[in-house]
Design brief:
The protein is mainly beta. Helix content is 3%, strand content 35%. It is built from four helices and 57 strands. The strands form five sheets. The protein has a 48-stranded mixed β-sheet that branches. A three-stranded parallel β-sheet has the order 41-44-47, with no helix packed on it. The longest helix is centred in the middle third of the chain and has 8 residues. The termini are far apart. 55% of the residues are buried. Keywords: Signal.
Length: 807
């Protein structure tokens, strides 16, 4: 075969193709109005950048699904966790993964497939002359030569001169690899490139199934497809650029290796096409419903296309977020893993499909999507390693320590649960994770290039440059709706962000363009509503600074300016004797070594309770806790009230409808929920609360909920409250015997500053009034600690007991 070199350039830069619409020709003398010349002094306003909402709501159903939540963690010496509604990333201008332009090369002995061709990979010792055979992972063309072994002659297999150096599948052609051998995956390795513009597939004639296939080359590139439905495909190269469809979806049949999936490993990997390993429910039991695993790893990784590992109806596996790779094959999983640059501008879908009568009536569960960066110092990499080919070397050379490692998402991640059909349950949503930091413990040997080992004990591994961590885009992890005939709502999903810094960095962990984070419990048609969401935002100093006794460790700040909706779902009861609500939403902000600045509209409650029921157990109240080493500033508005209970007492078996028995209602416990607990603690800074807050107890039939337990502590600073604070007690029905209104809130302020400093500023517009009922509750008050007197003093209201308040 003749040497063949193709005029093709494989480049990640080619992923961004701009198409310009040209105006058609026309007569300028037509009668249409013409635009007047533009005033050169007037500039067009910049187009608005896209904004999104992050959704982790529970699904509605006969009982509502619980909402999901969000966790954000950053360790370092500077920078901040910054969550903002303002969009700062223009997807069209966002940084891109770059690799050098590399001409494709099929080598000196290429195989070009122009028509449908089948290559038998079954082991053979006597191929026909001219036949293509597999020998120790290489493809060879038998030239008929033989060698002498003892007294006999045997075919001379594996001759270097007959090895195929590169493969090209042309458009319209299908290359099928065939074998009747059950067992391990087949590996095909070429020294140069694998160019696929047609179709590649596998078959086992004895089972009519595909079999696992691994391709190894210098470059894999193409607009063509790989059809590996029913099994797995792995591609290992220096550069992978896919613009076709690679499909390894399960079929409900057992594959050789027990799972389906796609694995792409290269120094540079870009997907501009479709990667698919979606579950397909084959029967009413949901067999085959779990999506496969799609793993992409490299020094630089980018997804600009679509990755689909969605689960079908009936799937219901809860992935372990700490060891999720152990769960491959049991739920749809997508992971992008890189050492220096990882970006997603496309779509990642690990959602569950809706239930149907033809398969399972239960909605599928969401899977797991992860974007991970293991930052590396390039000077720690042996870039002169002889094992690195020129492409891998060139990809590393594109970067330097003047270029920050990057983790950027501007695309869409969907991990919703599917809706139930008939009386089927909604599927629970999945997980989305973003991590920058050491990931060996999570992924095992996931790095592409190893760092050089230190030659002496005194040498230390060089830290990576400061990481750029930017996330925006559509993040949807809603629980599925329960079927209309009585299905339960699915739970919302979880989103996690973590940055484990290796050195001081002023770069933020930045989540931008998210106008609201919604994690609301699902509404119930005839049961308990879902619990509202949870959020945990924490920062910490570098490990080497934690044990310092001379100075306090310095850690990142938290700056939060996105709205929060964490309300519980509504509950509806029809004659229940008792019910326990699922709990209450919580929010935690903790900045060890830093400050906290919150400017948001926050809504979090325990929902509403309606219908007929005798006893309600609220379990807990909403909670908002803020801890910081430095200053705490809370502005905007906060509504964190107790559950509203409008339900009436259910009739006992002896009672008759229409007969009013006050004594029966007095024995029931239909109390409104307590207002949120609010805690703010600063070790060495000031606390400034300018937000308007409603922390009132909820109304109840025979008992109003109490107003907030509110505590602010600034040990070395001042506490200033200038917003309107409402923490009134909830009302009870005064027509019900022995009904009692809730107590007003109690605000406790603590500072160790002396009386020569204005420690506390409290507005006179506080509303801490008691709720009404047949008997009213107690009004609330504000008390402040006086270090000079070593006791509390009354700052507002009628303080009943300063040493031991009533609650």
């Amino acid at each position: 075969m003749n040497y063949q070199k193709l005029p093709f350039t494989a480049s990640l830069l080619a992923a961004a193709i701009t198409m310009t619409a040209c105006s058609g020709g026309g007569n300028s003398s037509n009668s249409e109005p013409q635009d007047l010349p533009k005033d050169p002094g007037v500039t067009d306003p910049a187009p608005a950048l896209p904004t999104y909402t992050m959704n982790m709501n529970g699904g509605d159903g006969v009982e509502g699904g619980d909402a999901g939540g969000i966790g954000i963690f950053k360790m370092g010496a500077a920078g901040a966790i910054r969550v903002s509604a303002e969009a700062t990333i223009d997807p069209s201008q966002a940084p891109v993964v770059t690799v050098p332009e590399v001409p494709s090369d099929l080598g000196s002995n290429p195989l070009v497939i122009s028509s449908d061709t089948t290559i038998d990979l079954s082991e053979t010792t006597e191929p026909d002359k001219g036949a293509i055979y597999l020998y120790e992972s290489g493809l060879y063309i038998f030239d008929g030569s033989v060698v002498t072994e003892g007294e006999s002659t045997v075919p001379d297999l594996g001759k270097d001169s007959t090895r195929i150096t590169g493969i090209q599948v042309n458009e319209g052609a299908t290359l099928t690899f065939s074998t009747d051998t059950e067992g391990a995956p087949k590996t095909i390795e070429v020294e140069q490139d694998f160019i696929n513009n047609g179709t590649i597939t596998t078959t086992n004639p004895s089972t009519s199934r595909t079999f696992p296939l691994q391709l190894a080359a210098r470059i894999y590139q193409g607009t063509g497809d790989i059809d590996q439905r029913g099994t797995a495909i792995s591609i290992i190269a220096s550069l992978v650029v896919n613009a076709g469809t690679i499909d390894a979806s399960p079929t409900g049949l057992e594959s050789f290796n027990g799972y389906n999936g796609i694995n792409l490993v290269a120094a540079g990997v870009v997907n501009n096409g479709i990667l698919r390993s979606e579950g397909i429910a084959t029967n009413i039991n949901g067999d085959g419903a779990e999506g496969g695993a799609i793993m992409i790893s490299g020094f630089a990784v980018a997804n600009n296309g679509t990755i689909d590992a969605s689960n079908a109806a009936g799937s219901a596996f809860k992935v372990n977020t700490n060891l999720f790779l152990d769960d491959i094959g049991r739920t749809g999983t997508v992971a992008l893993i890189a050492q220096y640059a990882v970006m997603n501008s496309g779509t990642i879908d690990v959602s569950g499909d809706n239930g149907s009568e033809q398969s399972s009536i239960n909605g599928g569960w969401g899977g797991y999507a992860g974007i991970f960066l293991n930052p590396t110092n390039i000077d720690s990499i042996d870039i002169e390693d002889e094992e690195l080919d020129s492409i891998a070397q060139a990809i590393v050379d594109q970067y330097s320590d003047s270029v920050s490692p990057i983790l950027i998402n501007t695309g869409s991640i969907v991990a919703d649960g599917g809706d139930g059909a008939e009386d089927g349950n909604g599927g629970s949503a999945g997980y989305a994770g973003f991590l920058s930091g050491p990931i060996e413990d999570l992924f095992g040997d996931s790095v592409i290039f190893e760092a050089e080992e230190a030659e002496t004990v005194s040498e230390e591994e060089l830290p990576a440059p400061p990481v750029v961590f930017e996330v925006t885009g559509n993040l949807s992890l809603n629980g599925g709706l329960g079927g209309a005939a009585g299905g339960f709502g699915g739970n919302g999903g979880l989103v996690g962000f973590a940055q484990l810094a290796a050195e001081a960095s002023t770069n933020d962990l930045h989540i931008s363009g998210i106008t609201a984070i919604n994690a609301e419990g699902g509404d119930a048609a005839s049961g308990i509503g879902g619990k509202g969401g949870n959020s945990y935002l924490t920062t910490g100093p570098l490990e080497q600074n934690e044990e310092s006794e001379e100075t306090s460790p310095v850690g990142p700040d938290i700056i939060f300016s996105t709205d929060i909706n964490f309300n519980g779902g509504s509950s509806q009861f029809n004659g229940a004797s008792s019910a326990e609500l699922k709990g209450a939403p919580t929010m935690l902000f903790g900045a060890q070594g830093g400050s906290v600045d919150i400017n948001s509209n926050i809504a979090m409650n325990q929902g509403t309770v309606a219908g007929t029921v005798n006893n309600i157990d609220h379990d807990s109240a909403p909670a908002l806790r803020v801890y910081a080493s430095g200053d705490i500033l809370v502005s905007g508005s906060i509504s964190a009230t107790g559950a509203e209970v409008t339900a009436s007492a259910a009739l006992s078996e002896e009672e008759e409808p229409g007969v009013v028995l006050a004594a029966a209602t007095s024995s029931s416990d239909l109390a409104g929920g307590n207002g949120a607990a609010f805690v703010a603690e600063s070790e060495s800074g000031n606390i400034n609360l300018t937000a308007d807050m409603d922390l009132s107890g909820g109304n109840g039939s025979n008992q109003g909920g109490d107003g907030s337990i509110f505590q602010a502590t600034a040990t070395e600073g001042t506490i200033n409250i200038s917003g309107n604070i409402i923490a009134s007690g909830g009302n009870a029905d005064p027509t019900i015997e022995s009904s009692v209104g809730g107590d007003g809130g109690i605000l406790t302020l603590n500072s160790d500053l002396g009386s020569d400093v204005s420690r506390y500023t409290v507005p006179t517009s506080l509303d801490l009034t008691a709720g009404t009922g047949e008997t009213a509750g107690f009004d609330g008050y504000v008390r402040g600690y006086n270090i000079d007197l070593v006791e509390y003093e009354c700052l507002f209201g009628n303080c009943l007991s300063l040493v031991a308040p009533r609650r």
